């Protein structure tokens, strides 16, 4: 199985899988950064058999000094996934409203929790509608799942690890927020504008377009242009670890399954005013001590 087949599924292929018995477990994780939650969208129409899982309250921990979307408590995550019918070793497909960010964070969270296989519906809900595939409404109640959450199956960067990665000459920490946020010209969400000193700017449109990824060789070229090399550790951050999870998925598709996610991201970094902040278009790597 290729990396793409292991991580993405096209709408027509998923429709065929849903006609088989047993079908994969499908999770609807539609979400908006500024709200409202996606549950109303889900109730108005969703993939047949899909169960809604809330990114903010079920796939992430409560916001605080660890960021706006910190790691979930393993026991709470396990309970949420079992409510959604996730079973040990049984395939899961996640989808969102089309930009692919929430689905990528769900993909990352399930894999971090030790669950395989899990894939993202490529193009999300719009791709399903565009293919003219069946739509259901209401809210099904699946049989309880039996998944066991075993944290740590994917690399996680804490604030210190992110700082070391950004400062190292032989590593790359990607900042995948919009360029004006990286440069410190505009910050719509967090209290301080700028970037982690040493981080390299690669806004999300550089590797994904409307929730769809280019071919692996194209991804490798685009990451290489940002300094990503096979022999260099790489990680990614954004505002709160959602868009960056999509970057980690893109890196996975490009052959870098070892890419780390700085889950706390900028919202954690600026929670401590003592942490340094760089501005401008260049990484602003600090001088060696």
What does the model show?
The chain is an alpha/beta fold and 289 residues long. The protein has 2 domains: 3-130, Rhodanese-like domain (Oxidized Rhodanese, domain 1, 3-Layer(aba) Sandwich), CATH 3.40.250.10; 156-269, Oxidized Rhodanese, domain 1, CATH 3.40.250. The chain has helices at residues 3-7, 11-18, 39-44, 55-59, 74-83, 101-112, 124-130, 159-167, 179-183, 216-225, 243-253, 265-269; strands spanning 8-9, 25-28, 51-52, 92-95, 118-121, 156-157, 172-175, 200-201, 234-237, 260-262. The strands form 2 sheets. A 5-stranded parallel β-sheet has the order 1-5-4-2-3. Helix 3 links the parallel strand 2 and strand 3. The model has no long low-confidence stretch (mean pLDDT 95).
CATH topology of the largest domain: Oxidized Rhodanese, domain 1
> What share of the residues does DSSP label as strand, in percent?
5-15%
Which strand order does the major sheet show? Answer: 1-5-4-2-3
Mean pLDDT: 95
Helix content: 25-40%
User: What letter string, H or E per element, gives the SSE order?
Assistant: HEHEHEHHEHEHEHEHEHEHEH
Question: How many β-strand stretches?
Answer: 10
What does the overall shape look like? globular
Structural class: alpha/beta
CATH architecture of the largest domain: 3-Layer(aba) Sandwich
Low-confidence stretches: none
**Main pleated-sheet profile:** 5 strands, parallel
- Tally of separate domains: 2
How many helical stretches? 12
Q: What is the highest CATH level, the class of the largest domain?
A: Alpha Beta
Distance between the termini: 46 Å
Supply Rg.
Answer: 19 Å
CATH superfamily caption of the largest domain: Rhodanese-like domain
């Amino acid at each position: 199985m290729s990396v793409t087949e292991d991580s993405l599924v096209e709408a027509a292929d998923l429709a065929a899988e849903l006609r088989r018995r047993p079908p994969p477990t499908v999770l609807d994780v539609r979400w908006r950064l500024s709200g409202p939650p996606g549950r109303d969208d889900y109730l108005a129409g969703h993939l047949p058999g899909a169960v809604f899982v809330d990114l903010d309250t079920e796939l992430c921990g409560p916001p605080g000094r660890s960021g706006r979307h910190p790691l979930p408590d393993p026991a709470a995550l396990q309970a949420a996934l079992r409510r959604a019918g996730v079973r040990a070793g049984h395939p899961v497909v996640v989808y969102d409203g089309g930009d692919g960010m929430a689905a990528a964070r769900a993909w990352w969270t399930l894999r971090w929790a030790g669950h395989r296989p899990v894939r993202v519906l490529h193009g999300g809900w719009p791709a399903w509608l565009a293919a003219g595939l069946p739509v259901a409404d209401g809210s099904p109640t699946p049989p309880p799942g039996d998944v066991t959450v075993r944290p740590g199956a994917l690399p996680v960067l804490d604030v210190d690890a992110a700082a070391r990665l950004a400062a190292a000459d032989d590593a790359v920490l990607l900042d995948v927020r919009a360029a004006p946020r990286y440069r410190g010209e505009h910050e719509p969400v967090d209290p301080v504008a700028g970037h982690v000193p040493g981080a390299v700017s690669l806004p999300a449109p550089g590797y994904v377009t409307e929730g769809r990824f280019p071919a692996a060789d194209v991804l490798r070229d685009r990451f290489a242009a940002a300094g990503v090399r096979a022999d260099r550790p790489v990680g990614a951050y954004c505002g709160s670890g959602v868009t960056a999870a999509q970057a980690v998925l893109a890196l996975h598709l490009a052959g870098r399954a070892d890419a780390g996610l700085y889950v706390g991201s900028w919202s954690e970094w600026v929670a401590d005013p003592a942490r340094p902040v760089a501005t401008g278009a260049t990484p602003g790597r600090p001088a060696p001590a």
